[in-house]
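Figure 3 (text version): structure tokens given as input.
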């Protein structure tokens, strides 16, 4: 079997302009998605997504004519491109989609088959007043979620803690509540100074009293001693690593025992194969792998397959914050969105490969020329 063609489908879903304003980000009127389609001479087609894939057209000749099942070699090729260009890991996801379809198995089975379902946590994104955030949290519990994550803006710590407190009081002690401070990396052009280490330790102590399950990205990643101090002085679990670029950097973090929870996103960080290896290393250290999944349904599917393949994942991130962010909006180019069941479980689809189906009519409807 050989790769005969690699196609990029770029789509844009119109959004209400107020949508991203509520998320403390640059207001946007659209949601962009790029789907990688890999065709083979056997008629098997694989799909991946999760990055813009800007500039990838220049590298297609490195894959066409090659065996799609030689994934280890393709991973090494993508790493060389990553050094000079951008994060093109959706290409590897498409190859795992092909491999699963060729074998008639979910990719999770090929990656270890540790489990066929994972408990999901509702990953909120909007910054809301305490009362509104508590109402949304209760609605998520009624939907089936047994865990949820809130964002706290570094310049609105007081309001953030108040929202966490309101959520804890509303959902009770049996629901896991996580908090994301978003301080380990920056959006392009954001040069705002990070919240200082003393303030973060004070915040972490307050969150520990509210029984927060983990604190995500409390400080810039280059200051690991300060991150360890947060853990040691407050007892709170620390999570991070979602956008780390290479396997070597991820391994260094595990060897330094930087975090309790490692979160590299398989379509944005180091790819499915490398992240699975990282997950095994984390488990040997009695730490957890629970990847970032904030892209779209195909990106979520790729992360689900890896996490289910290796297992020992307490909760898997599930982007969910209605009315602004829903499964249908996130997965607009799939025939069916990925959803959790009434008890908050996300089950690995039984279909082979990544287990989801691309809606080509939707890609054509929202196509960007």
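Below: residues designed for each position.
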């Amino acid at each position: 079997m050989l790769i005969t063609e690699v196609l990029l489908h770029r789509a844009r879903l119109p959004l209400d302009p107020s949508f991203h304003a509520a998320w403390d980000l640059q207001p946007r009127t659209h949601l962009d998605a790029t789907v990688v389609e890999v065709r083979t001479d056997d008629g098997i087609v694989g799909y991946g997504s999760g990055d813009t894939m800007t500039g990838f057209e220049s590298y297609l000749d490195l894959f066409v004519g090659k065996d799609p099942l030689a994934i280890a070699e393709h991973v090494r090729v993508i790493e060389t491109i990553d050094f000079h260009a951008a994060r093109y890991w959706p290409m590897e996801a498409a190859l795992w989609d092909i491999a699963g379809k060729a074998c008639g198995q979910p990719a999770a089975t090929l990656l270890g088959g540790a489990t066929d379902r994972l408990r999901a946590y509702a990953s909120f994104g909007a910054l809301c007043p305490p009362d509104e955030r508590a109402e949304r949290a209760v609605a998520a519990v009624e939907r089936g979620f047994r865990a949820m994550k809130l964002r706290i803006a570094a310049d609105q710590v007081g309001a953030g803690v108040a929202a966490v407190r309101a959520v804890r009081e509303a959902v009770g002690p049996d629901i896991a509540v996580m908090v994301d401070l978003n301080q380990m990396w920056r959006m392009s052009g954001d040069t705002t100074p990070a919240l200082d280490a003393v303030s973060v330790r004070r915040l972490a102590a307050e969150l520990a009293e509210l029984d927060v399950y983990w604190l995500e990205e409390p400080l810039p990643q280059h200051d690991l001693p300060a991150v360890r101090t947060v853990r040691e002085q407050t007892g709170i679990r620390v999570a991070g690593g979602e956008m780390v670029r290479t396997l070597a950097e991820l391994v260094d973090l595990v060897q330094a025992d930087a975090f309790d929870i490692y979160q590299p996103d398989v379509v944005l960080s180091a790819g499915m194969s490398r992240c699975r290896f990282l997950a095994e290393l984390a488990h040997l250290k009695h730490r957890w792998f629970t990847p970032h999944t904030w892209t779209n349904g195909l990106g979520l599917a790729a992360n689900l397959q890896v996490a289910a393949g290796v297992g020992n994942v307490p909760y898997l991130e599930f982007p969910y914050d209605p009315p602004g962010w829903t499964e249908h909006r996130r997965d607009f180019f799939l025939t069916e969105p990925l959803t959790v069941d009434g008890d908050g479980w996300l089950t690995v689809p039984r279909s082979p490969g990544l287990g989801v189906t691309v809606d080509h009519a939707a890609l054509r409807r929202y196509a960007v020329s």
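The mean pLDDT is 94.
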